[in-house]
Design goal:
With 433 residues, this protein is α+β, with helices and mostly antiparallel strands. Helices cover 55% and strands 18% of the residues. The chain has two domains: 2-50 and 289-432, no CATH class; 100-239, no CATH class. Helix 2 packs antiparallel against helix 11 (285-326) and helix 2 (16-52) crosses helix 13 (341-377).
């Protein structure tokens, strides 16, 4: 080892600029690669945590999307409320399912004031569990409320504050949806004005989740919008034609295959079924963009780190080439005196590993110093997935992959020159040297 360190010291003295530049290039590659692997892993974990922390949320419909992107459901609907028991039996990770009527109203009236609403959903009591909604005040509506079509509502904290000054003041308050029209027995047109009572207030999800799944500002029992006198039990069989499912332990592709297989067995192989991830009205570009962002970032920055690492390793190759050419006669004499090729290769391999190890130490120091400034440059990426600030750190996995990759590249490039030198005749090499 002392001999190797002395040799490296002599190299630096002989060509300080080239040697130091080579070591710094390898160090920079090590630093960038370790930072890239750590941040890409951090981003991937965040997206996975946001989208699949408590399970994977998937939309389904007994229908398909038209060329214009509108969801067209089958009539009559081929799926009924037995979808719950079917999936619960067939899927170990099944958590729940809930039918959904999206965009029920676009505005409501509170007192004499009218307000535009981003999204109103008619659904069942299972929706709150599926979407991991956290109750801030009051209570969620129940299965009995769904069965009886109660005029109850649960609203977001931000909407409660906007309409009633606070979530607490919202409880027990009322609002009216747009008036509905129906034809009376005598053929006359009548107007029905209904009043909903706010029963609960839930905490607003972060913007990434709200945008991805079009989380509602107002959630009501879907039976509350059925016309008066309608057979609720019969309608409940029909409304399960479109809804949302939550499962755990599956990727999206696995869950899609399992759901289609399960429902085809229950309702027939010719059933029309569309499954997607995102909002009830269609695929969410937010989710797709988040996944693409993480994937693209990982590929681009990791490639940059690998290129720098290999570039530096080629520099080590040139250093070892000069070393090998300068010791051509010495190597031949060592072989003539009985030194094996393996022992000579081991010497050069060890020397290149020491050079690489020095670069690795410098590179890891750079990574520790630069990872936070580098992360701040990616604030727009983090904000795009709902993170106002992020503090990623170097991960053991990233460090392990980087160190092994650097040592492997440096070791391989370090022995290439001496391998070619040892192919010639020992006597010819000594005579020519």
């Amino acid at each position: 080892m002392i001999k190797i360190l002395i040799s490296i010291k002599n190299d630096i003295k002989a060509a300080p600029g080239k040697t130091i530049l080579t070591l710094l290039t390898v160090a920079l590659g090590v630093g960038i690669l370790s930072i890239a692997l750590s941040i890409s892993g951090f981003l991937g974990d965040i997206v996975l945590d946001k989208l699949e922390k408590e399970g994977l949320i998937i939309n389904y419909s007994n229908g398909e999307f038209s060329d214009t992107g509108e969801l067209e459901t089958m009539k009559p609907v081929e799926i009924d409320k037995n979808i719950l028991s079917t999936l619960e039996v067939d899927m170990d990770g099944f958590i729940g399912a809930s039918p959904i009527f999206s965009q029920v109203w676009s505005d409501i009236q509170v007192g004499t004031e009218k307000y535009q609403i981003r999204n109103v959903l008619g659904t069942s009591e299972e929706y709150f569990n599926i979407m991991d909604m956290e109750l801030q005040s009051g209570s969620f509506f129940t299965s009995d409320d769904v069965a009886t079509g109660s005029k109850k509502a649960v609203i977001s904290s931000s909407l409660a504050t906007q309409l009633f000054n606070s979530p607490e003041e919202a409880i027990g308050s009322t609002f009216q949806p747009p008036a509905g029209q129906f034809r009376g027995r005598g053929g006359e047109n009548n107007v029905a004005i209904e009043t909903f009572v706010i029963q609960g207030v839930f905490e607003d999800p972060d913007e990434f989740i709200r945008t991805s799944y079009q989380t509602a500002d107002i959630v009501i029992p879907l039976t509350s919008i059925f016309p008066a006198g309608m057979n609720v039990s019969r309608m409940m069989d029909m409304v399960y034609g479109s809804g949302v499912i939550k499962v755990e332990g599956y990727s999206f592709n696995q869950a899609e295959a399992m759901i289609k297989q399960s429902l085809s067995s229950q309702y027939g192989d010719d059933i029309t079924l569309t499954i997607w991830e995102g909002s009830p009205d269609g695929d969410s570009s937010t989710i797709q963009e988040a996944r693409r962002t993480v994937t693209t970032f990982s590929i681009v920055v990791n490639i940059l780190g690998i290129v720098l690492l290999l570039t530096g390793s080629i520099g080590i190759l040139s250093i070892m080439m000069i070393e090998a050419l300068g010791r051509t006669r010495e190597i031949a004499i060592e072989r003539a005196l009985g030194a094996s090729k393996l022992s000579i290769l081991r010497e050069f391999f060890s020397r290149s590993l020491v050079l690489t190890a020095i670069s690795i130490m410098v590179g890891l120091i750079l990574a520790v110093i630069l990872i936070q400034p580098f992360a701040h440059l990616l604030d727009p990426v983090f904000e795009g997935i709902g993170i106002s600030s992020a503090s990623p750190s170097l991960t053991p996995a990233a460090l392990g992959i980087t160190i092994i990759s650097a040592l492997l590249a440096g070791g391989v490039f370090g022995v290439i020159p001496v391998v070619s030198l040892m192919k010639g005749s020992i006597s010819d090499t000594i005579r020519e040297g």
